[in-house]
Amino acid sequence: MTATVQARPAEGYAGDITPQQAWDLLAGSPDAVLVDVRTEGEWRLIGVPDVAELGKQVVLTQWVTADGRPNPGFLTELAAAGVAGDGPVVFLCRSGQRSIGAARLATSAGIAPSYNVLEGFEGAPGLDGLRTREGWKVAGLPTTEYRP
């Protein structure tokens, strides 16, 4: 059984979903995969989503490197991790911006449906500069330390 999700329409990929919708899709679809496309530095400092209670592991593949350059091996790394588009693929970054590009590229490579998580892992910073208003963490979804 595959869960259905009401995604916000988007150009070039299946659409944008909230962190809670992402969790529900991952929980309701055995073939759904979560791909965290932040940098290794972000994983180390901030942590990563934890989907172990769903019997899944997060695929960690950088969309851009720490110096801001595109990761030329992105699609190869997805394939090596077994991400082939056999089920929904949910892309997540820090605030929901970089993961749009990842979802578009994956879709163009036949990895679909690919979704972007609005708000990302931490969300956009508020007026105080803190990321405490939105995102996977603020929604209270499971997180864990990065363990390479």
Characterization of this structure:
The strands form two sheets. A five-stranded parallel beta sheet has the order 1-6-5-2-4. The relative contact order is 0.23. Strand 5 (89-92), helix 4 (98-108) and strand 6 (114-117) form a beta-alpha-beta unit. The chain has a single domain (15-144), classed as 3-Layer(aba) Sandwich (Oxidized Rhodanese, domain 1). It is globular, with a radius of gyration of 14 Å. The protein is of the alpha/beta class and 148 residues long. It has helices at 19-28, 40-46, 74-80, 98-108; strands at residues 15-17, 33-36, 48-49, 59-60, 89-92, 114-117, 143-144. The longest helix is centred in the C-terminal third of the chain and has 11 residues, at 98-108. InterPro entries: Rhodanese-like_dom, Rhodanese-like_dom_sf, STR4-like. It comes from Isoptericola dokdonensis DS-3.
Counting structural domains, the number is 1
CATH C-level category: Alpha Beta
Please state the average pLDDT score.
93
Percent in strands: 5-15%
CATH topology: Oxidized Rhodanese, domain 1
| Fourth-tier CATH superfamily name | Rhodanese-like domain
Main sheet characteristics: 5 strands, parallel
User: Tally of extended strands?
Assistant: 7
Could you provide a short overview of the structure?
By secondary structure, the chain is of the alpha/beta class. The protein has helices at 19-28, 40-46, 74-80, 98-108; strands spanning 15-17, 33-36, 48-49, 59-60, 89-92, 114-117, 143-144.
Write the SSE topology.
Blueprint lengths: L14 E3 L1 H10 L4 E4 L3 H7 L1 E2 L9 E2 L13 H7 L8 E4 L5 H11 L5 E4 L25 E2 L4
Parallel strand pairs: 1-6, 2-4, 2-5, 5-6
Antiparallel strand pairs: 3-7
Organism: Isoptericola dokdonensis DS-3
Protein name: Rhodanese domain-containing protein
Pfam families: Rhodanese
